Every structure is written in C-alpha cells, then in structure tokens.
Fold this sequence. Notes:
The longest helix has 28 residues, at 86-113. By secondary structure, the protein is α/β, with parallel strands linked by helices. The chain has helices at 23-32, 40-47, 55-62, 75-84, 86-113, 146-157, 161-170, 174-179, 192-205, and strands at residues 11-17, 36-39, 118-122, 138-143, 183-186. It folds into two domains: 11-35 and 117-207, Rossmann fold (3-Layer(aba) Sandwich); 48-116. It has nine helices and five strands.
Amino acid sequence: MTDAAPRPAPLRLGLTGGIGSGKTTVGQWLQEFGAALVDADRIARSATAAGGLAIPAIRSAFGDGMIDADGAMDRARMRELAFRDAGARQRLEAIVHPLVAQAIHAEAERAAADGARVVVFDIPLLAESDRWPPQLDRILVVDCSEATQVARVQARSGLAPDTVQAIIASQAPRAARRAVADMVLHNDRIPLDTLRTEVRRIADGFGL
Length: 208
C-alpha cells in the first residue's frame, strides 16, 4: 500500500483595489466560481465588533468614547479620528493588523486543508504592506478613476465627497497598486455583466 500523493498547495491570489473600485464584488464572484475567499475587511470587523479580540486594546488606547453602547468600536468616530490624526491611525493599525493577519493565515490554512485550488486574499491595504506581496503567488488589482470611486461610495454610503476623498488619500495611489499587480482589472464605466465575464475569464485561467 502506497501513501497518497500530497495535495498540491493552492494558488494564493492577492486581491486589492481602492475604496469603491468593485473589489468586493470581484472577490465574491471568484468565490462563486470556486475559489476560497479570505476577506480581511470581514475579519477586521469581527475583531472590532462587540466582544472582538481588539476591543480591550482599543478601549485602553483610545478610551471608552471610542466604544459604542453595544460594546463595539465606534467605527464612525474612529474613522473620523484616523483620517485627521495619522498617529491615531497607526496606533489602531498596530492593534488590529496583527490580529487580522493571524486570522487570515488560519482561514487560508483551513481552505488549503479542505482542498481549495485557489485562495483569494481580499486585502484592501495590500499595496501599502511590505509583508503581504511576498506571500502571494499572483496579485489582481481592481482599478478605476478617483471620480468613479467618489461617485460609487457616495451612492452606497451617503458620505460627503470630501470624506470620500480623504479616505482615498489615506490609501495607496492608483499607480502604487498597479505597480504591485500581476493583473489589472479595469472597472470604469463598464456594465456589471461585462465585468463578471472578465472575472469568469480570470477564474478559468486559474483552473476554476
């Protein structure tokens, strides 16, 4: 009796894009087409929700005023603080990012053990990180103009244009994201079904 051949490691696909780029939709479609999806935003929200692992450290660093009545991080107040105070943003990232990274690795390991052929790492700040790109096999960037970003975010969340522009300014420039990309998916003024067809083509290329 011979031992079974070891299961090949899944392809590790990084997925990123600026706010309002359509990255989340692309990730959901890749998951629908057969990839395992590890969503850093979802993990971060869990860490800062009521009872989340980051809450004690956030309370200690920023005070009770940054914790809402339910015991979760007050996301609106923290967003406002982080965008006007770089030091506060760095303190928050120092609390949340290690917890998120640990959870990302755990989810990816479970997906590999379950036989996933492709694991998609949906990481909004991938281009800002020195740590993530070397750990990935390929990087897909979803790209669109800043005007499109502002219009989409306003439509879905009602944020003022200057608030959206402040969020965009806090993220890596488009050129920096494209510089780390193996593939760029352009999502400016194209129908959703056209974008979906492009994502299907990418998934096919990975054997999904």
